[in-house]
Structure formats: C-alpha cells, structure tokens
Amino acid sequence: MRTDTSILIDQIYEQSTAIQIMLEQVQSDDQQIQDLQQQLSELWKELEEQVFRQ
From 27's CA, which of 3, 37, 43, 54 has a CA 20 to 30 Å away? Predict the structure, then answer.
C-alpha cells in the first residue's frame, strides 16, 4: 500500500509538470508578441517613409 507521502509526491510532480508546460506556453506567447510588436514597428516606419515621400 502506498503511503500518503508517496501519493503527495506524485501529485506534486504531476502539478509541477503541468505548470512547466504552462510556463513554456507563456514564454512562447511572449516571443510571438515581441515578434508582432517588431513587425508593427517596422510597418509604422514604412508608413512614415511613404508619407514623407509624397
């Protein structure tokens, strides 16, 4: 029969694994946001250049 401690350790391991996966997803989302911000910034610069040329 398993002890309460070993059951608890298993639960903590499962939860920490789930949290790790969530953190990796958040970091991925952060990188995508940074990429989009960079693209938006470049588009604004391009637009400004177009306006000044006219």
Answer: 43
Distance from the Cα of residue 54 to its chain's centroid: 40
DSSP 3-46: -HHHHHHHHHHHHHHHHHHHHHHHHHHHHHHHHHHHHHHHHHHH
Provide long-range contacts, Cβ within 8 A and 24+ apart, for 43-50: none
Q: What is the value of pTM for the model shown?
A: 0.59
Tens-of-pLDDT digits for all 54 residues of the chain? 678 999 999 999 999 999 999 999 999 999 999 999 999 999 999 999 998 888
Measure CA of the first residue to CA of the last residue in the chain; give whole Å.
81
Euclidean distance between CA atoms 17 and 7, whole angstroms: 15
